[in-house]
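Structure tokens please, single chain.
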Amino acid sequence: MTATSRMKNGHAPAILLVSQEPFLLKEREDQIRDRLVPPESRDMNFLMIYGWEAGTTQIVEFLQTAPFLSDRRLLVLREVQTFGEMDQLLAYLQDPNPTSCLLMSSSELKRKDSLFKTLSRLAEVSELKKPGPVKMTDWVVERFARLGKVIDRELADALVQIAGGDMSILQMEIEKVAFSSGDGERISREDLSVSVPGGVEVVFNFLDALGEGDHPKAVAAGKRLLDHGSKPEYLVHMIAWHFRQLIRGRDLVDSGLSPRQAAEKMGKNYPMVRDKFARQIGRATGEGLIQALGTLSDYDLELKRGGIPERIVLDRLMLDLLR
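Here you go.
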């Protein structure tokens, strides 16, 4: 029997998961574990170990032992590229035990690597890719749907930005927001407030004030966010996200749409949100927005260097943006 021969339940005796996203590796690992080994029999039939601490004897003895009160045994070998006795492991994979599954994972292997090519001939391979920005928003919408909730793309995109694109943080925030939203099906801006110190509505007020050139309102909202624990780096990140949204809207206006049509095309469906965004698109210029992104990049670097109080840096940034 070869390692790529299928089990009756759809899993092969050896599986290789490859991804640079830890959340995706852990999620798929958990899914396979849940399918193969029931919770009540895991003490005797499940083992997780990292490549750098594993030995061939330990691995092979576990995999060659018959399952106890279970149909399968599962051994998870994380970061397989760090395993020091690869020849012996490959020898096992030539004739694996069909009642066991060796699940190998790696955050570093690439298709061009010789080990990837070798293991792909002996194991079932799954390459798990982190979604890009647009697909990440789709992913958030789908995750809420799994929990019986509906979220608008604008709010889903905001949650992606709040989490900085970190999928582990995103999943935790999705669950937190869904749980806090109560029995209602649709997620609102207020529901997202549990994810943002000071409240997500204050974040939107802050961004809208910047987009509309309202310096007093922007300063007041920024101060409130800082007082509630928001980091200046986070605010810079959110400002950059908002200005990139405005650039997209401005491009649509320059292509012939009205500001309102551009806002609607970008999914700003609530009348108040749509009208605010349309006003901001109408007053902005593509050149000015691109310059603003350059300014944000400079201040982001200044924050990372340190040496100047963060609030002073943020105050100077808002003055520069609102000139």
